[in-house]
Design goal:
With 361 residues, this protein is an alpha+beta fold. It is built from 8 helices and 9 strands.
């Protein structure tokens, strides 16, 4: 998979379509707290920046509803398919990995949503990131969201690139203002970040993909693994083959459906522990945790049997957030903290405007 070169103006147009789940840029504020046991440090200005981001995205969703009569996701708008799956925790994991959901070998029902990354439902040929969101059901224990503590779901959200391109909420606020300003404002931001963030954006959005089942996905941001910290990833099982015949504007969904009409597929779900804290930051989502220092280790298998994916309206009504989680897998870092407020606000507003119940399975 390779990134296609883009001009600065084309890149500005592309980034103008990009959404919160694909964020990243340079740190601009100094930390004001001692790191937590998990390595979290909340920078000055995060609360104000988060509030500003939430307000802006909320306004965008409302504006879309006023225009279209339907409230769409601000990110990962186009679904390539929601499918039923089984999430099976492996047996005989080492104690360091056998924590939280992975403490006991067990199989759970799950739903997996494959999607684009943009806030628009664009042509599948367009440069974009791709998402894989896994909702594991029947998971016991109190959940982290105050209004869903008794829910039985654990979500794992991933994209098909190992890092983001913005580090924290304060920097995302700056980036969002540049995107909202458009034109010279956005071009100016891009020009000022040509040598670090822009290459990440190009890599993030430049993967050529014909079937969302034929890709590796990463959490990009860290989470707890009980007493440890982890990132997680899913990759197709060894020896898998894929249907990639369609090349239309909706080729990802079409090839996914054709694949599952023929038979099932599987993914290895893996975790990577934080073995070298100095090289594996919690608060910098632009830094990849090198596998040479800490390899990803399989802890579960996601099995997707032959099927017809869910109807579009059923898939659309589902909500996914990394904060659908037990405490043992609490999301970590500034990007995750912002996502908590953004995802919750957008989900509530979207379901309210569309007259849909917002209930976890």
């Amino acid at each position: 998979m390779s990134a296609r070169p883009l001009s600065l103006s084309r890149l500005a147009s592309l980034v103008g379509l990009m959404v919160f789940s694909q964020v990243g840029c340079a740190v601009t504020s100094a930390p004001t707290a001692v790191p937590s046991a998990d390595g979290e440090v909340v920078p000055a200005g995060e609360a104000a920046a988060t509030a500003s981001i939430v307000t802006a995205i909320q306004a965008s969703v409302q504006s879309g509803f006023d225009k279209n009569g339907h409230a769409f996701r601000d990110a990962h708008r186009k679904s390539h398919g929601c499918v039923q799956a089984t999430f099976s925790v492996l047996d005989k994991l080492p104690p360091k990995l056998a924590q939280g959901l992975f403490a006991t070998p067990k199989s759970y029902n799950a739903v997996v949503r494959f999607s684009n990354g943009s806030g628009s439902s664009q042509n599948d040929h367009s440069n974009d990131a791709r998402g894989m969101a896994v909702k594991v059901m029947g998971v016991p224990g109190l959940k982290l969201l105050d209004d869903e503590q008794t829910a039985s779901t654990q979500d794992f959200l991933m994209t098909n690139h190992p890092v983001f391109f913005i580090r924290n909420a304060v920097d995302y606020g700056v980036f969002q203002k540049a995107v909202s300003g458009g034109g010279l404002s956005l071009t100016g931001w891009l020009a000022g970040h040509l040598f670090y963030e822009v290459p990440i954006i190009l890599s993030f959005t430049g993967h050529k993909l014909l079937n969302p089942l034929n890709s590796r996905y990463w959490s990009t941001t860290p989470s707890r693994l009980g007493t440890e910290q982890m990132k997680f990833s899913a990759k197709p099982c060894a020896g898998s083959t894929f249907n990639e015949q369609s090349d239309t504007a909706d080729r990802l969904g079409e090839n996914l459906r054709a694949q599952l009409a023929q038979g099932g597929v599987c993914f290895d779900f893996m975790v990577q522990t934080r073995t070298v804290p100095a090289e594996m930051p919690i608060e910098d989502a632009t830094v990849e945790w090198k596998e040479a220092k800490s390899p990803f280790v399989p802890v579960a298998r996601i099995t997707i049997p032959a099927q017809t994916p869910e109807a579009a309206e059923v898939c659309e009504a589902r909500s996914f957030t990394p904060w659908h989680s037990i405490a043992e897998h609490r999301p970590l870092g500034g990007i995750s903290r912002v996502r908590k407020d953004v995802y919750l606000t957008v989900s509530k507003l979207r379901h309210q405007l569309n007259g849909q119940p917002r209930i976890e399975p």
